[in-house]
Structures are given as structure tokens and as C-alpha cells.
Amino acid sequence: MFGKRLKLFKLLGFEVRLDLSWIFIAILVVWSLSEGYFPYFYQDLSPQTYWLMGIVGALGLFISIIVHEFAHSLVARQYGMSMKGITLFIFGGVAEMGDEATSPKGEFLMAIAGPITSIVLAALFYWGAILGRASLWSTPIFGVLQYLGFINAILAGFNLLPAFPLDGGRVLRSILWAAKDNLKWATRISSNIGVGFGLLLAFLGILQIVRGNFVGGMWWVLIGMFLQGAARMSYQQILTRQVLEGEPISRFMRRDPQTVPSSLSVKDLVENYIYSHHYKMFPVMDDGKLLGYVTTKQVQEIPRDEWDRHTVREIYLPASPENTISPDADAAQALSQMKNIGASRLLVTEGDRLRGIISLKDLMEFLSLKGELEQ
Hints:
Helix content is about 60%, strand content about 15%. It is built from twelve helices and eleven strands. Strand 9 (about 325), helix 11 and strand 10 form a beta-alpha-beta unit. It is globular and about 80 Å long. The two termini are about 30 Å apart.
């Protein structure tokens, strides 16, 4: 979903990141507010004032989205759902879940927390605008407050639409899940609604383009296609998890993987292991004891002309509960763990002994074979 991301800050244990696409939307929002929205509703102000209002309004929207996503994250953490952080990207913000909800109640409360927060923010901003007008505050101040009240109300209303993966779609899924105690069925119904809603938005966007509103129409098309793609992907993830659940990793992990000693030079690692075996990750072992692992990513951080002056010991990553898993563990657990740490391979261990390696490719090949044989 995301491209290159920048870390902004960390608050209450959640990391807030910025996808570079947000820079584009931020510029577009400031321009739209400064040249369109504020001049239309508040006339006879200077161009500099409109641009200042546009910048402050966009900043308020930015903060409102973060608060909305924080509400999701805090409730999710209360109900045992791991949250990787919050990313702001071209279509707004996303609270990144490491795992699906474990109960309909947890999903319902997590999903509804965002829109409720936006409604509260809308009320506070509208109250501020009314107070400002009564107190004869300057037009730019209550103008920005009124805009923020309006945009938070729109944010709440849009997210409450019963189209997965919008918040309203998650609320619908939680209700269906509770009614029939079947997450797969509930996800299929809510995802199909999400796909239909996304296609409807795309169709309406095309009509807007035909009528001459190219920029607005393209936004509708892009948002519609994003929603229908995300809805399809969510259902596929549920199917994948259900196929992998109950399958022990030992069944299809790679045993006796190629290891490297920590004393090996980075140059030898590249020439004699990476280029020879075509693997991107190698466990690091000394005297039969697992130390950790080294990947091509660590090698890339060293200039090529310095490879012969550095060893694996200087760059390997130590083994930890995050990057290791038991051979008896559930394959669905391995998939979630890979997703949480952003890796495609895990070390399979018993104590400090290496038993093998499990990769995303192994999981997908098993998934494909099982799907082909069992439909």
C-alpha cells in the first residue's frame, strides 16, 4: 500500500509516519483552501491571509486525522490487537494493524472509536467558531475553525459508510460476525459491499470527468479504485489465514539452511554465499550456536569498496523473539509475525538452536498447492 515513508514522531508507543504521497495531498489541500474555499466563503481578505488560512486549515486537518487514527489504535491496544503505527498517505491516514480483531466486540469498539472522535472534534471546532463570532474574533480565526468543524463532520460521515475497509464497513462486519459467529462470511459480505461502493465512486468520478471536472473526477476514481482493491485484499487475507491456521511450520520450513560464521568478511559473504546460493538472508552461527542473521539490506549499508574491511560480526542482527519462531508454531502466526516486522523470512529455533528457515515464499507455495488440491 505504501511507498517510502518518513518517521515523524512517536507518541503513547505508536509511531507516526508520513508516506511521501501525503506531501502531494498537503499541497493540493492548501492550494484548494487558499484559492477556492476560503475566498468563496470569506470575501475581501488579502491573498496572504487566504494562504495563511489555507496552511493553518491543512495543518488542522493533518492533526485531526492523526487524532482519529490514534483513537483506533488506543482502543485496539485495549483489546489485544497489535498496532504497527499510523501512516499518513495520499488518501488520508491508516492505523496499521498487525493482526485482525479477535472478537466482534473488539472490532466494533475499535472501528467506531475513530468516527466518534471525529464527531467530537467537529463539535468542538464548531463551538469554537460560534464562540469566536460572538466574541468578535477576526474572520480568519473563526473561518478556519468553521472549516475544521465541517471537515471533521465530513470525515466522520464518510468513514461511517458501511463499506469495508472503511470504519462503517468494519462496524458492519463486527455485527455480522457476532450474529453468525463466522468471520469469513462476515468479511465476504462487508468486502463485497466495499467493492461495490468503490466501483460506484469510480463510476461517478468518470461522469465528473466527462462533465469537465477532471481533477475532482480523478480523485473520485482513485479513491474508488483504492477502496475496492483494499476490500478485495482484506477478504483474501482472511482466506489465507484460515488456510494456514493449524498448519505447523515444521511441515514446510527449510531444514539445514546455509549458515555463515561471524568472522566472515562482507566481501566473502557476497561473493561466496549471496551470489552462489542466491539467498537474501543467512543465519549467523559460531560453534553451533545461533547468533542472529545477516541480510542483503545490511550489506547495502556498507560502501562496496569497504566490503573487504568489514566482517559479518559488525553488521548482523541478533536473534530475538521478533525474528524467530518455534517449529511447532502455527503458520498463520508466522505470517502475522512477518507482517508485523516487515520481513519475508523468520528463523525457526528451539532454544538457541537453529532448526530451519521459514519464508513467505514457502507459505505462499503451500497455500497455492492446498488451494489447488482442496479448492
